[in-house]
Write a structure and sequence with these properties.
With about 150 residues, this protein is an all-beta fold. Helix content is about 0%, strand content about 55%. It has strands at about 15-25, 30-45, 55-65, 70-80, 85-90, 90-95, 100-105, 115-120, 140-145. Strands 1-2-3-4-7-8-9 form a 7-stranded antiparallel sheet, with no helix packed on it.
Length: about 150
């Protein structure tokens, strides 16, 4: 099975899989929160040498703070994914690990209306999540937040 653009081929394999996942978050009394999650994949007795597009380790950590009676918030996120092997028409290749730092600030001048700005891939790494797709360079987003 190949997608219409020829970017990948689906392959069926037999394997034993163990998927470990955990998360932890803690909020201090002063509006500061820290936390994270991780998942670890273990594969045994696979019918191929390496499983394609499946990272062994993914870790996300965050911290956030709310100020001015929750009118202003600041959040940072750090995402890590180890390198993965990918299948191509010419054989196999590797996508390097991903290290992605994001920071977001949000301000609510009114109770249900706010504005935000978010910087992503602030380390400007060559983060390629999937083979055949472009990397995401340093990016900045902004917008309006409406709650109802």
């Amino acid at each position: 099975l190949t997608d219409s653009l020829g970017r990948f081929t689906a392959e069926a394999i037999d394997a034993e899989a163990i998927f470990l996942e955990g998360s932890l978050a803690y909020t201090l009394e002063n509006g500061v929160s820290i936390g994270g999650d991780a998942n670890y994949n273990i594969y045994r007795n696979a019918s191929v040498d390496q499983l394609f597009h499946i990272p062994q380790l993914v870790v996300n950590v965050f911290s956030s703070v709310s100020l001015l009676e929750n009118k202003f918030s600041l959040r940072s996120d750090l995402h890590f994914r180890d390198a993965v092997t990918v299948s191509e028409r010419e054989g196999t290749s590797s996508l390097s690990e991903i290290i992605d730092l994001s920071i977001e600030a949000t301000y609510y001048p009114a109770e249900k209306i706010g504005v935000y700005i978010k910087g992503m891939n602030l380390l400007d790494k060559d983060n390629r999540f999937l083979q055949g797709y472009q990397r995401y360079p340093l990016q900045v987003q902004g917008g309006i937040v409406v709650k109802w």
